Amino acid sequence: MTLTERLDYYRKLTEAALEKALSSPNERYYPSIFKAVRYSAMSGGKRLRPALIMEFCRMCGGTPEQAAPFAAALEMVHTYSLIHDDLPCMDDDDLRRGKPTNHKVFGEATAVLAGDALLNRAFETILDPQNTKGLPAETVLRAAERLAKASGMDGMIGGQILDMESEGRQISQETLMLLQRLKTGCLIQVAAVMGCIVAGRSDPETLGAAERYADHLGLAFQIEDDLLDIEGDITKFGKPIGSDVENSKVTFPSLLGAARCHELVRELTDHAIAALQSFPDHAFLDDLENYLVTRDY
Fold first, then answer.
1. pLDDT exceeds cutoff 60 at 242
2. Which of 253, 84, 76 shows the shortest CA–CA distance to 161?
3. How many helices (H) and strands (E) does the chain have?
4. Residue 230 burial (CB < 10 Å; 0-12/13-18/19+)?
5. How far is CA 284 from its chain centroid?
6. Exposure string over 14-31, b if 16+ CB within 10 A, otherwise e
7. What confidence tens digit (pLDDT) does each residue in 11-37 have?
8. Per-residue pLDDT at 268
9. What is the pLDDT of residue 1?
10. Is residue 246's pLDDT more than 80?
11. Is residue 43 within 8 Å of 96, Cβ to Cβ?
């Protein structure tokens, strides 16, 4: 498969798992929450994190299909974080993926509940034995524990707090690196790790290599995102250009300059690809890394 074909295949597996997870016979009684969660969860996006879970699972001897419930769960956690990040009490954004943000369509209260619902549904999905047939209970629990930690106070939420507390302040490159490793990088890193775990590979060497790849990828991805916030085209980027400056956020370009950021993206990309050498057949991830850091949206 080409890069595009495999990404499309992984996207279809993820969205089928999402459709299944976000349906319920109770929808007829209170449909608004189901409409709200589907509005954001099924609104497209790159589905990067699900692709990483499925690809690492495949490289470690598993199948993308057995990783699909975990991919959907991670995408639900990611989507919940976007819904909450867009709220007036956070970044107060009007657009996400080229569409009005969840609270603009459904109101703030429903948007908060939609985010909460997605977070809960993520763990319902991977802890439902019907979705993980054939996997040892220990494997499922290990994957769930890694996802919980990556999305909690020692991960994404910790990064969000650092982000909020850094607005309007000058922070060091070290603090900015930590902020982005937590806020953005943790969910990218856990995607790679969960893929290995689901395939039955939990040895330190394998998980360490996956973590190194994803750490470099996550930082490169965030720096590229920061660059797009000042250089991108709103019709492609899908959210307002310049919102980081408007919200008085310290970004990599504001700290290091755009030229150094472009250099750093290439350095991180090379390090990420080097971390994959212990995995067989990693050409897809090499191509994915290069694609993500040369994208224009």
1. no
2. 84
3. 16, 2
4. middle
5. 18
6. bbebbeebbeeeeeeeee
7. 999 999 999 999 999 999 999 999 999
8. 93
9. 80
10. no
11. yes
Residues 7 and 268: their CA atoms lie apart, in Å, by: 22
Backbone dihedral angles phi then psi of residue 99, each to the nearest 5 degrees: -125, 160
Per the structure block, which two tokens stand in for 172? 């060091």
* Nearest residue to 43 (alpha-carbon basis) of 92, 102, 86: 102
Q: Assign 176 a pLDDT band (cuts: 50, 70, 90).
A: very high
Q: Structure tokens of 44?
A: 């497209």
- Whether the Cβ atoms of residue 180 and residue 155 lie closer than 8 Å to each other: no
Q: Going from the N-terminus, what domains does the chain have, and what CATH number goes with each?
A: 3-293 (1.10.600.10)
Give the mean pLDDT of 189-198. 98
Per-residue pLDDT of 97-134, as tens digits, reads: 889 999 999 999 999 999 999 999 999 999 999 999 98
CA gap 1, 7 in Å, rounded: 9
133: number of Cβ within 10 Å: 8
Q: What is the 3-state secondary structure (H, E, C) of 76-87?
A: HHHHHHHHHHCC
| Under 8 Å between Cβ of 22 and 266 | no
Inter-residue contact 263 to 269 (CB < 8 Å): no
Q: What are phi and psi of 96, to 5 degrees?
A: -145, 125
* 249, amino acid identity: K
Q: How many CB atoms lie within 10 A of CB 129?
A: 9
